[in-house]
Amino acid sequence: MESVADVQYVVVHGYRRAFRISGSGPAILLLHGLACDSSTWIDAIPALSEHFTVIAPDLLGHGESDKPDADYSLGGYANGMRDLLTVLGIDKVTVVGHSFGGGVAMQFAYQFPDRTERVVLVSTGGLGKEVSPLIRFLTVPGSSAMIAAATFRPWRPLVAGGMRALARGPWSATRDLGEVARIYETLADPATRTAVQRVTSHVLNWKGQFVTMTDRSYLARLMPVLVVWGRQDLVIPAKHADAAPTHGSGNVHVLDDAGHFPHKDHPEEFSRLVLEFVATNAPAQYHRGRWRALLRRGDQYSLESVPAPADAVAGGPAAPAIG
Questions:
Q1: Residues 107, 74: contact at Cβ < 8 Å?
Q2: Phi, psi values for residue 31, rounded to 5°
Q3: What's the DSSP call for residue 243?
Q4: C-alpha–C-alpha distance, residues 119 and 101, integer Å
Q5: Is 167:181 a contact under the CB 8 Å cutoff?
Q6: 62 is catalytic
Q7: DSSP state letters, 141-162
Q8: Which residues, in sequence order, are CB contacts of 312 under 8 Å at separation 6+?
Q9: Are 135 and 204 in contact (CB under 8 A)?
Q10: How far apart are CA 27 and CA 39, in angstroms?
Q11: pLDDT 10s digits, 72-96
């Protein structure tokens, strides 16, 4: 098994994609948040890789992946993940997404239901309007120049060091500043800064998130969904978990003493929740007829009262009913 610290590379569509891969068994895809990279999952990967083939990429424009002038939309990222998995010879995954990565995970499931077995959303974007003012600031005209000045080398170590010192304190309001310090340092790179701002322009503005999946959340009745949040999340409020598409399954867990990165605050608990979720929820099976019926009738469709259409046989056995 590869060390979780080992980063591998593959070229897709002419761009270098960095990723970590370890373990064996069913595949699980871990998608990080905005301005982060695959290292955000390092504490959780060992436990998960005992049961899964774990793939944790650096999304395009992030980490050690290339940062081209390219498509940074949710749909573009979902396509990129499909292509990366195809190159790696992986057909189906349980997709896990944190923050912006949660939006990518939902988009992946929406675009490629035939390749999605389950969805795990971690402090995810895409379920409501509210988001931290610091992220909304990235969409303000002229913010790039202001960030460049704020991350200028002479004072960058002092600012980052101060954030990390505060993160070690006892206050819940500062618990995530260690991760914020890493993001702050990352944004000093002009290519990363440009890519991150291109990402934000696709999903939010200075008022908040304008792209959500709530209008299509009824589609999640066709696949198991787990939601994990931190109760002290100051980036995206934990109340957004109430809008998660779990349809009464009870698969919503708001962790105490955790902020926007519950998988880092409590990696053992996070890994346990994911393992139990997979063990108790059979992988979804894509059926064209059932998917079509759900699209036609929207959230009025009942999986329990309407049998799988005849043309669903091409997709295999009936998908597990959620809710």
A1: yes
A2: -115, 120
A3: G
A4: 12
A5: yes
A6: no
A7: TTHHHHHHHHT-TTTHHHHHHH
A8: 287, 288, 289, 290, 318
A9: yes
A10: 18
A11: 999 999 999 999 999 999 999 999 9
Measured from the Cβ of residue 250, the count of other Cβ atoms closer than 10 Å reads 7
CATH topology for 8-130+209-284?
Rossmann fold (3.40.50)
Question: Does the annotation mark 253 as catalytic?
Answer: no
| Amino acid identity, position 72 | Y
Structure tokens that stand for 298 in this block: 């929207």
**Domain locations in the chain as residue ranges:** 8-130+209-284
Angle (deg, nearest 10), helices 190-203 and 143-150: 140
**What are the residues facing 31 on neighbouring strands?**
97
CA gap 262, 175 in Å, rounded: 11
From the candidates 65, 233, 249, 266, give the one annotated as an active-site residue. Answer: 233
Please give the radius of gyration of the chain, using alpha carbons only, rounded to the nearest integer.
Answer: 19
Residue 99 falls in the annotated catalytic set: yes
Helix (H) or strand (E) holding 16: strand 15-23
What is the distance between the alpha carbons of residues 273 and 240, in angstroms, rounded to a whole number? 19
Q: What is the pLDDT of residues 117-172, one digit of tens each?
A: 999 999 999 999 999 988 999 898 899 999 999 999 999 999 999 999 999 998 88
Q: Which of the following is catalytic: 22, 49, 99, 123? A: 99
229 vs 262: CA distance, rounded Å: 6
From the candidates 260, 263, 266, 287, give the one annotated as an active-site residue: 260
pTM here is: 0.90
Two structure tokens written together for 283: 């992988």
